[in-house]
Here is the input.
Amino acid sequence: MQFELTKEYLEQLNIAVESKIEAKILELIDGLHAVDIAEILDEQSTKEAKAFYALLPEELVADALVELDEDTREKFLEEISSEEIAEKIIDNLDSDDAADVIGELSEEKQDEVISHIEDIEQAGDIIDLLNYDEDTAGGLMAKELVKVNIDWDVATCIKEIREQAEEVEKLYTVYVVDENDILQGRISLKKLLLAPENKKVKDVYNDELILVQVDIESEEVAQIMDKYDLVVIPVIDEIGRLLGRITIDDVVDVIREEAEKDYQMASGISENVESSDSTWSHTRARLPWLLIGLFGGILGAQVIEAYEDQIRIHAGMALFIPLIAAMAGNVGVQSSAIVVQGLANNSLGLDGLGKRLFKELLVGLINGAVLGSLIFGYNFFFSDDLTLSFIVSISLVSVIVFAAIFGTLVPLMLDKYKIDPALATGPFITTANDIFGLFLYFYIFYLMYN
Amino acid sequence: MQFELTKEYLEQLNIAVESKIEAKILELIDGLHAVDIAEILDEQSTKEAKAFYALLPEELVADALVELDEDTREKFLEEISSEEIAEKIIDNLDSDDAADVIGELSEEKQDEVISHIEDIEQAGDIIDLLNYDEDTAGGLMAKELVKVNIDWDVATCIKEIREQAEEVEKLYTVYVVDENDILQGRISLKKLLLAPENKKVKDVYNDELILVQVDIESEEVAQIMDKYDLVVIPVIDEIGRLLGRITIDDVVDVIREEAEKDYQMASGISENVESSDSTWSHTRARLPWLLIGLFGGILGAQVIEAYEDQIRIHAGMALFIPLIAAMAGNVGVQSSAIVVQGLANNSLGLDGLGKRLFKELLVGLINGAVLGSLIFGYNFFFSDDLTLSFIVSISLVSVIVFAAIFGTLVPLMLDKYKIDPALATGPFITTANDIFGLFLYFYIFYLMYN
Here is the structure.
């Protein structure tokens, strides 16, 4: 049932496109959705993609363009005249997608395209939407919605909804507003279908409504829709007027991107990079963390260098350098990750900082005791240097406790100063923990042997 | 507008609950949603929560229970009689939530509760749903839906929809089936409202429909709904009969949990643990990775031990142990993370293994060249051992290239054998890379000095 793009399919299609056998192309894309078409376009060479795009049935052109990778879309839009963008693409899109597409153009081209939009109302909607920051409720919302007046009766409502619905692709909820367009509540189609025709809206509508203001961040919109299991949420301005609505499909993208960003941060990738991107994009996304790692490694080398003469005497000390450094980093990342997820899900609960740190101390001590005893046991049986065994175990416990507390504090502090707390699971903190772990190890070593 | 739980609010509420001042409680929870109530219950002590729950208005009882943390819910259900569960809770839930709640009970209690459900149809739906694996489309779907026969006219349809809609809380799509209940397509309410009453369904319905079979995995359902921006998707059996529907809110949970699982894996947390969970849960979630880390550290120590005598002579070698080990781990995680995300998003594209590995080789060589030169420069200026400088740089480049290729191969292989590829960004591979990095470093050291 679902389309799966294969190499063979792509080859067949490209041959048909090259030879312009339209019948074959139509047969190949029969039943495909705009998303599938976009997937094909993303895999084709620029030349192939342009030839294919030119032969697409008109109803797929606009939607496929919206679904494209941003880079690929940019390349396409550069080739198309402003008039064609307005007529073939913008005219077939909802206001939110239309604004997104136009927002990617140069200022000059934006004005040109807008001047070519025939439907004045749509042009106005797009201009309104372009004013909102991409990462706010305003940037996510569409203007298309169905609303009824609170003073109407059910029969008028149904008549009005019929008319309004022609403009709206998917009808989710009917909003109820007063004469000043102030949002009052909602009424479900089901209720309208079931209610007697002469009832007034004000007697059957639902005045409990979760809504968002136009200027809140898109992440917060996602959190609210996720928490309350909403499919659509209305957006209001400062005085409560209904401006638009955000649907869950746009918010799913926000949720996924947010989670991906955290995962990338924890994996040391600094840009959103896909497997199929260029070697250069990959290098650019990965090198920054590795440079921090290199810098950390050099600092670590300097810590060790200070004890170089002692290592000559107690060469056994060198054995546990990787263990101590790795453990410091690991424990820190674990502690930070739990805080980061708690902040992302709003599930940190009501515990104060003191209680939180005390729990980390406890967890650190338990984990430290287990791991410290194990490594002591190992050293006791396999090494004849009892002092070294003590040093390693004591260092390990100290490092684990310290890293657990540090790892909890850092994301909380970052969040307080409005910095993305997921940074804490990334390179800086891991590297800092590594170095501090080494420092502690050698300092304890120095204390015990002097 | 949205409820935010504070310490002060909780204290006020707990006082009111303790003194059973019902008016005060109702005032405090006025306008709250079931999710908010669940949030409160999760923060209360078991005793407080039970007292509060007993005083809740009936319409909130069932929904709040569904929204609770699984642990908390289990505690509640243990205290409630089977009859009360059936009447107060199950009766007020959609079939999917009802099946989820019943599925958490003991086998014996399941039978008791089901025997107390009065609505035979609902009991049947729940029994059907309990048969499906939690992690499949069947485990996500609800049986409540609105369907019409393809041979009816629009007037009959609207009449039927009115009747069926009374059972269905939210009406998303009207499905069209034939006389054998085989799914044929869908018809939008909008279209029904706009069509003349005497038209036949078969003349106005839409036969293009994305659907899933009941036995596919929930992750695949999530991928399809996300890809095609669907709010609801129908579920069919092997011969195409309409069984139920899955709504986006349940799928958002799957998407979020999946992303969280990957993040936790990359951060070395082996169980889903929240900040507010007990010290014991935290220890249990974090110790496994640390044990693997400890084991890896011991293996690393053994690699170094083999060269202990040489370290006495060339103590400078010890300096770069943390750098080499950390870099091997970092590069491996980066490469794996990109593959893991590509697999999760279905965005790996059509490149074959050879092309993919060649790109990794290239990225590894570029990154290695940059980092190797930098560390060579550092050593050239700050160390007088030129051989050591060469060893460190050559090792670094080799380790980076090796880890990049290894990090790409492992998740692809895991995926091929149906193991979660995100494991590759977790402890095993990082530790393996660390150790292999050390091994390579000391082996090159051995070759250069002998």
Observations:
- The two ends of chain A are 74 Å apart (CA to CA).
- The domain at 279-449 of chain A is CATH 1.10.357.20 (Tetracycline Repressor; domain 2).
- Chain A touches chain B through 121 residues (CB under 8 Å).
- Chain A has 23 helices and six strands.
